[in-house]
Amino acid sequence: xxxxxxxxxxxxxxxxxxxxxxxxxxxxxxxxxxxxxxxxxxxxxxxxxxxxxxxxxxxxxxxxxxxxxxxxxxxxxxxxxxxxxxxxxxxxxxxxxxxxxxxxxxxxxxxxxxxxxxxxxxxxxxxx
Amino acid sequence: xxxxxxxxxxxxxxxxxxxxxxxxxxxxxxxxxxxxxxxxxxxxxxxxxxxxxxxxxxxxxxxxxxxxxxxxxxxxxxxxxxxxxxxxxxxxxxxxxxxxxxxxxxxxxxxxxxxxxxxxxxxxxxxx
DNA sequence: TCCATCTAGATGCAAGTTACACATAGCTGC
DNA sequence: GCAGCTATGTGTAACTTGCATCTAGATGGA
Lengths: 128, 128
What we know:
The structure is a homodimer.
Chain A: H1 14-25, E1 30-31, H2 32-41, H3 49-61, E2 65-70, E3 78-83, H4 85-109
Antiparallel strand pairs in A: 1-3, 2-3
Helix pairs in contact in A: 2-3
The first copy, chain A, binds a DNA duplex (30 and 30 nucleotides) through helix 2 and helix 3.
């Protein structure tokens, strides 16, 4: 019998992948392969390695990181990434977003105390 | 002069949008238009309303929510959404992901203490 | 009655993003 | 040489998103 339900298995992409990569680069240079391993080790949902490489290139195009080839170690050359000032700014701005997101998720799962200042709008029509 | 830098303006989509919607539905029924307003009021980056509606339908297809038409109020009919057991499970599983993500972002921005148990791997090769 | 406006939901399409498979290339050990 | 590991990438189909646009009920004004 064919499985009909579309999967919604957790995956890391979009802003969450981009910002995780930027965060790992804060204070350290790193290369793609290494960053992919760190993501896996950090308990985040897996990302395809191709997606990681393409995301890094896209971050470079938008000025969040810069890169250079590192041939100082033995083995295949590594494209080392460095966080730019713009990337750092974007990252710190994203922290606010994360805080609000966090509030929503945790509010939902622990008896969710209604936030004292959110009372008086049309949302009072919520059913049951 | 044409702007050449690709935009990376924050937008809410993917897992973050889905889980925010699920969280808002915990304990309450709500309809799409209302949820879109809640997202905006919650200090999260904007989402296109079309995207919100489509995301809700997709959550329904994957069994995270169920819906019914509500014609009890005046005005256009509303498609009311209810969180399912599967949606609740997915949501609580996602909390762990969020916690790890949070750790990474905050670790990056506050002097980032090296986590005591993460020392002994190849990541020691990180350059300056 | 006609029209504008607001609420509510939805879709067509172009552009962008992703997963999966595969390709390339340097190095190590046999 | 060649298998296996490290490291970076690409082709392609499928999926997702933003924007514009559409339908439709209700309301209020001219």
